[in-house]
Amino acid sequence: MRTFLFLFAVLFFLTPAKNAFFDEKCDKLRGTCKNNCGKNEELISLCQKALKCCRTIQPCGNITD
């Protein structure tokens, strides 16, 4: 019975992990629609529902050690 209660708590009370596969894509599948762009992202265009299309900034040049 304790095992059942533990599994019930894990499956129904914890927030589900966010899966990037199901996020809305934009800019020919290279960007993601979000409320705000992150620190290493740039605003490309606007999506539906007043969201911003954010794309990760690529570093300039090759970095070698």
TrEMBL record:
Position of the signal peptide: 1-19
UniProt domain Beta-defensin: residue ranges: 25-54
Entries under InterPro entries matching the protein: Beta_defensin_dom
Compartment(s) where it occurs, according to its Swiss-Prot or TrEMBL record: Secreted
Pfam families noted in UniProt: Defensin_beta_2 (PF13841)
Subcellular location, principal: secreted
Gene Ontology cellular component terms for the protein in this record: extracellular region
GO terms classed as biological process: defense response to bacterium; innate immune response
Record keywords: Antibiotic, Antimicrobial, Defensin, Disulfide bond, Secreted, Signal
Role according to the record: Has antibacterial activity.
Entry's family note: Belongs to the beta-defensin family.
Protein name: Beta-defensin
